[in-house]
Specification:
Order of helices and strands: HHEEHEEEEHHHE
Structural class: alpha/beta
Radius of gyration: 44 Å
Number of strands: 7
Largest sheet: 3 strands, mixed
Distance between the termini: 144 Å
């Protein structure tokens, strides 16, 4: 009888232990399961939306940076030994040689050894193609080319810019501008005396500068 009781007690202990293990396993399983509520799902979607917005903004910034690299047009004035001197509009990535080609190319008297035809062009600048026998000075502040007769340093009124013309006695910046406008409208001066046809230069002023100017 005692043996039967002992066996029953052992069986009960085994059953209780088995039930305990079973419930303990269920508790572990439940602890490893993440239940996502509706509010948490909305938060996740909100974060994903922000990430998408960030990617779109980065894409827009990249596109804007690419657009800033678009080539623009510049307008420059080319004079001197050019077949058709004048104002020309050209892409900013072009060189001086490209601008001259648009104006009909160089004359036979152009001194190509004294000018850098590969130089980059800048908007609103004046570039002068020198003649053989002329000395050129590149102005770093204005990025323009000043020309003077190499032999006697006379100011070539057919090529000189405002700064050179302004250096003549009695010729200020306003008169220098008129000289340039005159030769652009009428063409190159045929003689130094023709400069008297420019408004603001009379006989007296011409007498003061005639030994300082040349047309070639």
């Amino acid at each position: 009888m005692k043996a039967i009781i002992n066996v029953g007690v052992i069986v009960v202990i085994i059953i209780v232990a088995t039930i305990g293990i079973f419930f303990s396993g269920n508790l572990d399983i439940n602890e490893n399961v993440n239940v996502v509520s509706e509010s948490e799902q909305e938060k996740i979607q909100h974060v994903d939306g922000k990430n998408n917005d960030k990617l779109e903004k980065e894409k827009d910034i990249k596109n804007t940076q690419e657009n800033t690299n678009i080539v623009k047009e510049v307008t420059i004035f080319v004079s001197g030994e050019v077949n058709n001197p004048g104002v020309v509009t050209i892409n900013s990535d072009k060189r001086l040689a490209d601008a001259v080609n648009k104006l009909g190319g160089f004359t036979q008297d152009a001194d190509l050894n004294k000018i850098n035809l590969a130089m980059k062009i800048e908007d609103e600048k004046h570039y002068i193609i020198p003649k053989i026998g002329e000395n050129i000075e590149v102005s770093s502040s204005e990025n323009s080319i000043n020309t003077k007769n190499e032999e006697n340093n006379l100011v070539n009124i057919n090529e000189a810019d405002i700064k050179e013309l302004d250096s003549l006695p009695g010729v200020g910046e306003a008169t220098a501008t008129k000289i340039i406008n005159y030769r652009e409208e009428k063409g190159k001066f045929k003689s130094t005396e023709e400069i008297k046809d420019v408004n603001g230069i009379g006989d007296k002023k011409y007498e003061n500068i005639k030994d300082m100017i040349t047309i070639k």
